[in-house]
UniProtKB/TrEMBL annotation:
This is Energy-coupling factor transporter transmembrane protein EcfT. The chain crosses the membrane at residues 22-55, 62-84, 104-126, 233-254. The lineage of its organism: Bacteria, Bacillati, Actinomycetota, Actinomycetes, Micrococcales. It holds the Pfam family CbiQ. It comes from Cryobacterium glaciale. It is a multi-pass membrane protein.
Length: 264
C-alpha cells in the first residue's frame, strides 16, 4: 500500500528503497531553492519527466495525485506576474497593476519551480509504502525508533480523515444542519465538520498513543525490525540521478547567465 493509494502497480522506482526516493526529492528541492530563474527550473522539470515515467502510475493516477500542483503552479505564476517586483520594459498596465519583463520572467520561474519541486515529491511518495518508509528511516537513516513508529502510526490515520469527513457530512445533512444557502451556509458546512473532525482526531490520537505506550512502543530499549531495509546499488543510482538532474539544471542556468544565487 502506498502513501496515497493502495492500487499502484509495481514499477522500477516503486521497488527502490524509500530513503533513496526521499533523498532525490530533497536534493532537487534544495537545489532549486538556491536561485529563482526559469532556466534551471525548466531544465530540471524536463529531466524529471524521464524519471517520472518509471514510477508506474497510470495517466489517471498521475493527474489525480498531482492536480493540486497543476492548480497551484499557474496561480502562483499569475500572482507573481501581476504583483511581482517591476523591472525591465513595461509590457502591460491597468491601474496599479503592471506587467514588466522582469515580473513575467519571475512569474514563469515561480510556476516552473512549483512543478519541478512538487511533482517528483508527490509521484515518488505515491509509490512508497508507509511501513517500508519507516523501516528505511529506522535502519538506514538511523532515526530514533520512537519517532519513526509514532510517525508511521500517525500516517496510517491520515487515510481515515476522508472517511470521517464524509461520515460527518452525511450525518449533518441527515439532521438538516448546515443546509442553508449563501456564504453563511457554506461556512457552517465547512467549519462544523472541521471542528468535529479535530475533536475526533485528538481523541483518536490520545487513545492510539496510550495503546502504543502500553505495548512497549515507547521503550528506549533497542528494537528489532520484522523486515530488513537495505540501501542497494540501484538506490545509489537513483540518488546519483537526482544529483545529475540538479547539476545539469544549475550548469545550464549558469551557462545561460540566468542563475542568481538567492542569498547573494
Amino acid at each position: 500500500m502506498s502513501l496515497l493509494t493502495p492500487t499502484i502497480r509495481p514499477s522500477v522506482v516503486a521497488r527502490l528503497n524509500p530513503v533513496a526516493k526521499l533523498a532525490v526529492a530533497l536534493i532537487v528541492s534544495c537545489a532549486l531553492l538556491l536561485s529563482i530563474d526559469w532556466v534551471s527550473a525548466g531544465v530540471a522539470l524536463l529531466l524529471e519527466v524521464g524519471l517520472l515515467l518509471w514510477c508506474g502510475l497510470s495517466a489517471r493516477q498521475f493527474w489525480l495525485r498531482t492536480a493540486p500542483v497543476w492548480i497551484a503552479a499557474p496561480m502562483a505564476s499569475i500572482t507573481t506576474v501581476l504583483y511581482g517586483e517591476d523591472s525591465g520594459a513595461l509590457l502591460w498596465q491597468f491601474g496599479f497593476i503592471s506587467v514588466t519583463e522582469g515580473s513575467a520572467q519571475l512569474g514563469l520561474a515561480i510556476g516552473l519551480r512549483v512543478l519541478a519541486i512538487g511533482l517528483p515529491g508527490i509521484v515518488l511518495l505515491a509509490t512508497t509504502d508507509p511501513t517500508d518508509l519507516a523501516d528505511g528511516l529506522a535502519q538506514v537513516v538511523r532515526l530514533p525508533a520512537r519517532f519513526v513508529l509514532g510517525g508511521l502510526a500517525g500516517l496510517r490515520l491520515v487515510g481515515m480523515f476522508i472517511e470521517d469527513w464524509h461520515s460527518l457530512t452525511l450525518a449533518r445533512r441527515a439532521r438538516g444542519v448546515g443546509d442553508g444557502g449563501g456564504l453563511r451556509g457554506a461556512a457552517r458546512r465547512f467549519f462544523g465538520p472541521a471542528f468535529s473532525l479535530l475533536v475526533i482526531s485528538v481523541r483518536r490520537g490520545s487513545k492510539l498513543a496510550t495503546a502504543m505506550e502500553a505495548r512497549g512502543f515507547g521503550s528506549d530499549e533497542p528494537r528489532t525490525w520484522a523486515r530488513e531495509s537495505r540501501f542497494r546499488v540501484a538506490d545509489a543510482v537513483l540518488v546519483s540521478i537526482g544529483f545529475a538532474i540538479t547539476g545539469i539544471a544549475i550548469g545550464v542556468a549558469v551557462r545561460a547567465e540566468t542563475w542568481s544565487f538567492i542569498l547573494a
